[in-house]
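Table S2 (continued). Query chain:
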Amino acid sequence: MNYRWLALFAVCLASPGHAEDQRYVAASSVNVREQPTVDAKVLVRLPIATSVAIKTTNKEWALVDVQSGVHKGHQGWIAVEFLISERPTLESLLSNIDQAPENDFRTREKWAERATALDEFVGEFSNIGESDVTGDCSGYKVWIWKVDGKIVGRFRMLAGDCGDSLDNRNALSNVTFNPRTNVLSFRVNSAYGDFLVLNFTGKLNPDTLNGSITFESLDSGEITLKQTVILIKRKNI
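Corresponding output:
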């Protein structure tokens, strides 16, 4: 057996532009085009984490076969900057948000958009209201994902400034979730500092998150306030 030729053949298969490598869509969504140019016809749009097999590449574009999702079997060109070798995960995307500088809004917002585009994203639930007199906002907002049957989330309490997004919110802790009854509970820091925490107990419904929130002093364990809340799921996020 000519091992030299076998080795050469293996190298050719692994060479850029010839390998059929598996990649994943890294952006919230990307266009699959008929030709490798931004002016070409868009055939389909693929959501984040869609698996594709690269047939061939040039410097900026990759010809791919779609391997997963509703567009499985389609073929076309995708800009290589939107393809990565490992599937994007919620953990990695939230970590990217946390590691980006607080004043780098665009970068943090980019990772937030990708996190909420994942299939695991359940929804954004909110009861935020704006005062007609002062223009201030108040209320709560919760972003929820369901990953392998477990609930992961971020929480935002508004008490004044109406500026808002997922880019810098508190992670839910002490989370419990019953998938049969959809009863959800969690604990999270409040907007008033680490000395006061919020405890939520309620039910995660298809369009609402309703239950009660209690304010607990970390120093004394005293419950200083209890509220009944109904948070409405945002549509078309």
